[in-house]
Amino acid sequence: MAELSTLARPYAKAAFQAAVEAGDLQAWSDMLAVASEVANNQDMEAVLSHPGLSGEQQAQTLIDVCGEKLNEAGQNLVNVLAENKRLALLPHILEQFEHLKAEQERVVDVEITSAFDVTDATKQKLTQALKAKLDKDVRVTTTVDSSLVGGAIIRAGDMVIDGTVRGKLAKLAEAMNS
């Protein structure tokens, strides 16, 4: 899917620049989320890929379904995407836009996957430690994966900390085999 991300990048950057200039990152984030969700709908995907519809008709259909959730600038983006046959890129544009927005706001999303439920106290300690280490505000989400046996995997952007029993056993086995 790297190709789709590459195609989406200039649109995401343009949308981000427009949002910064308008001073309304959240409104753009909301618009892109709605448009992406609508474009990802199975029935809408069939309409947007229908060869009998012009790009203008596809754009207008998407705009009509989104309704008041898209302002004029958001509608212009949809029209440009339709004109260039790129409406399917909306989810990728949203993803990249959110990444740019997080960088601008100095926020990082952290996912903690652990073998058991993470207590609020542990979550708070991890949040504070990561905030100090990354020098950014941290938004934490947690998931449980019982196959980990024990410990946790922490993902923050491109940084991954594997503190699982399974991970430690794999490192030990690798060390013994070398």
UniProtKB/TrEMBL annotation:
- Membrane topology qualifier: Peripheral membrane protein
The protein here is known as ATP synthase subunit delta
Q: Which segments of the protein form a coiled coil according to its record?
A: none
Among the GO molecular function terms of this UniProt record, one is: proton-transporting ATP synthase activity, rotational mechanism
Instruction: Return the similarity comment.
Output: Belongs to the ATPase delta chain family.
InterPro entries for this protein = ATP_synth_OSCP/delta_N_sf, ATPase_OSCP/d_CS, ATPase_OSCP/dsu
State which gene encodes it: atpH
Localized where? Cell membrane; Membrane
Q: Name one GO cellular component term.
A: proton-transporting ATP synthase complex
Its lineage opens with: Bacteria, Pseudomonadati, Pseudomonadota, Gammaproteobacteria, Oceanospirillales
Pfam families assigned: OSCP
Q: Which organism does this record belong to?
A: Bermanella marisrubri
Q: What does the UniProt record say this protein does?
A: This protein is part of the stalk that links CF(0) to CF(1). It either transmits conformational changes from CF(0) to CF(1) or is implicated in proton conduction.
Q: Which UniProt keywords apply?
A: ATP synthesis, Cell membrane, CF(1), Hydrogen ion transport, Ion transport, Membrane, Transport
Q: Which HAMAP family match?
A: ATP_synth_delta_bact
Q: Which domain of life is it from?
A: Bacteria
